[in-house]
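Section handout 9: paired folding examples.
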Amino acid sequence: MTEQATGAHHPQPRPRSGGQPSATVEHVTGAQSLIRSLEEVGADTVFGIPGGAILPAYDPMMDSTRVRHVLVRHEQGAGHAATGYAQATGRVGVCMATSGPGATNLVTPIADAHMDSVPLVAITGQVSSKAIGTDAFQEADICGITMPITKHNFLVTKAEDIPRTIAEAFHIASTGRPGPVLVDIAKDALQARTTFSWPPQTDLPGYRPVTKPHAKQIREAAKLITAAKRPVLYVGGGVLKAGATAELKVLAELTGAPVTTTLMALGAFPDSHPLHVGMPGMHGAVTAVTALQKADLIVALGARFDDRVTGKLDSFAPFAKIVHADIDPAEIGKNRAADVPIVGDAREVIADLVQAVQAEHTAGNAGDYTGWWKDLNRWRDTYPLGYDQPEDGSLAPQQVIERIGRMAPAGTIFAAGVGQHQMWAAHFIDYDEPATWLNSGGAGTMGYAVPAAMGAKAGAPDRTVWAIDGDGCFQMTNQELVTCALNNIPIKVAIINNGALGMVRQWQTLFYNQRYSNTVLHSGPEADGRQPSAGTRIPDFVKLSEAMGCVALRCERPEDLDKVIAEANAIDDRPVVVDFIVHEDAQVWPMVAAGTSNDEVMAARGVRPDFGDSEDD
């Protein structure tokens, strides 16, 4: 059993029968029992692909009126779609695959969900129980393979265990720190006759996530907050998982402390709020990075001191005391020792902190952050996010993404791939609501955007969903556009097409003397790396997208940008793909080079901020 179980999430709907056994017992196959169990735990959408070992489950799925199956084109697409569904809806995402290669194709999205604490249940078929361990056709030990990257996994060899296992899987995935759970079911268990009744008796004696924080630790944290001169609220994705955004806003406004939201927490606190100082990290806003470095108190809420945030760990925030609140006790002290550790659900922690800070205020202890805000506002005014327009009149990728964000309907969900476009989408779109920003943060999975956007749109069909993708990422999973076209899932995809693996190319520009080894995507090894003419684009994304049943557009000039985006926004009956041809040399700034201290943040190429340290410290 792999239990890294501790964090909070919107719970999956409980069994419909209210905890009482069904009046009648149904005589069914294990496969029918599986589908009935999915219906009872509230699963309404399954992303998957059939194959030999899981095939018995696909027959009764045809008869279900409560579970919709979306036939994907690749199992990786099924996994990322289930993740996008979960991130957009707050419910457990479900994916299904057959044994062997079907199951192993789910490994990447399972690892991705594990890193980002996404509630996911992956159901895989397995060879018959008597054949397990014999190297049977399409056999793979998927439980062994995924043990390090699942919150828990099950191997089911008896039909009568299926309802209990499904109920436990959904409970584990959606409670405590959310995460992926794998259920591997032998083919003979699916084929055997059994009985079905609901709810089953669950048995998880070792699984008791702590959600209520310790009152003494809360009081200590409140005292530190009101005594601090330079506090920062460092907000991670756990705040979103706990549904604690309203409580966070109350705490921030009560204290008056600056708020920084990580890549996984964008939308947890409104970007437009005056207390928000931006995203921290390797490509974070200068003000956010510097605020953490010069803070005398960091209050970490549902964050894990990831290396992309801390930079060189031993030089991170040298003056700061640490309050670290997390539902997973394994995270506390893992990377940075905590002066006040708090184990608990972020929503309960923040609500209790509000009361404790109010009590401190009543006792006459209120923080004075006037000098701190003077510094923060100076940095914010001096080093704002920005970009240069290309001198040759071509499209700036930042401008493309900024205009997509500005022109998108209210409540639009944005899913990003990984790389430069991901960072630009984090910086140049405003996220004022939770569950409007989906990305692969911990694993950094290229190919995430299109299937995740598909899953988000399937789960929230009334919302506009834009995938912001790079031409490299897009070529990994674009086959799921066929799934979208055939299943009435009209997502919109912006390909930020610079003809290269952009982030890797940026590193080659900065650290490898502009030797562009294997990062040019549109031509062979003898090419000089320049953008190809319209006649030599390989692939032609417009033709490719049209072949997959999408409306396809292309934009190459700044003067056409708004018109093309408006046209894409107006189409709601089919997927839309827009190929934005952007300048290849655009780079992501600010930047902290890997392995260096956050003190060495660069606002732009060759521009090191001057913080006037003598007056700051």
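Moving on to protein 2 of 2.
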Amino acid sequence: MGRQASAVLRGHPVTARSVAAIVAGLLLFGSFPPRPWWFLAPLGVAILTLAVRGDGRLRAGFGYGFLAGLAFFVPLLPWTGIYVGPLPWLALSLACALYLGVFGLLGRLVGALPGWPLWVASAWTAAEWGRSSFPFGGFPWGRLAFGQADGWFLSLAAVGGAPLVGFAVALTGTATAALVTLLQSSLTPEDRRETGGDETGPLGPGAVRGSATRLGYAAVIFTLLVMPLTGLLLRSALPDPDVGVRTVTVAAIQGSVPRLGLDFNAQRRAVLDNHVRRTAELADDVAAGRAPRPDVVIWPENSSDIDPLRNADAAALITAASERIGAPILVGAVLINQDRTTTNSVMVWNGAAGPGERHDKKIIQPFGEYLPMRNFFRLFSEYADRAGYFVPGNGDGVVHAAGIDIGVATCYEVAFDRSFEDALRAGAQLLTVPTNNATFGDSEMTYQQLAMSRIRAVEHGRALVVAATSGVSAIISADGAIRQETALFVPAALVAELPLRDDTTLATRIGPAPERIFVILTAAAALTAVARRRAARSARPTPGLVGER
């Protein structure tokens, strides 16, 4: 049976590599929340690395990477098409898969260099940087780091942010692939033929030639172990989740919505009423001694889609809620500008004093909050004109309420490494992610986003509060642990005493430097590999001139 399988693999190397790539993509998908199987990610990278490496054409590497990308992103992103049909979902998945195709091409190119596990892992990080940046500001969803909130690699976020976590996962995977190739190269020629490990075999990395050395084994095993073990050891260096310069009491309100879908806010007054009502219930609990009085209350994104700066009734409701709870409220509101564009804002509402500082969402969502090339895309979807006319804000992302410096990243912003950078430089002591997930129904989106918030908490060493309209809302400590969370689609209030911190992590101090280093390393490795390929090609004898003088 084994020999028959080996014969099939040897006879159909393209098919075997294609199947391996698809399996790799599915394993990557399986590593993401709500599943806790973070350990599948290195395995997926290992299988994909084995599939893309080889002596053949670079476009073959692109093709295998692209197949893996489709197998990864198509099941990861169906929430993007729940209420608008499959075309946007499949188009976005296709666009993201192209970047895994780029990784496949780079993996084949730099995979022949000495020390190739390092360069291939670096290529993965570079491809993620590209996807997180282009086009339309990028789409970071599905970065390896965002599947590691429950894993051994999490603490690395405090050192180098999400890029270092992703690189560590990728390097563990490429080292695993290197170990497989070393074991394969140590077989006898007959063994290699029986196991499909010849030059064209599906696992043949361009055919590793010669016997594996003890030094090679030691280097690969060391590389395979160093990243996950470093992550485990660094856990002891994460901040004590209960220690800070002082503590404050924070409440997150989840008012829920009358219905899910794109038209959830058709009953905008009902959404606002829900959050006012749940805040009043918390005030009753405080008065009865069942809950501590919060210093600040955080409402979700879109908790008031009625502009309270223009609508006196909405303003009166928010003022009454703030006065009743006896604390300022961070209100997620849609504000209408003079030119009829809109701004997605989180503003501090100080009781009778009314609105104070605000954070206008700086990273707005293409094809949702605004539509690039609207006239073009409306040719393909009737939902094009339902995209908003939001404009990005500016500022440092910090609002001040009750003497607390609060860094804000609204919903989609938390996926981007730069989301909290300005806020931390401006002295944010506490972080919050107000979000509205009602537009994505009962999908995995909210759990994927929650994992991003956990990464950001560790990255910057800050407690973080997630306030969601329909869930999941959560209180996250500086070590990435979820201290409290709500169920989906039920009104709820979370109250917690949280520490404020002024110190910063290494990741906060160095910012985007790790990712830039990985991109530079990848570019240098790619240029070196191209030069080697050209030199090898020019050294080959020209047909028809062999033996001639």
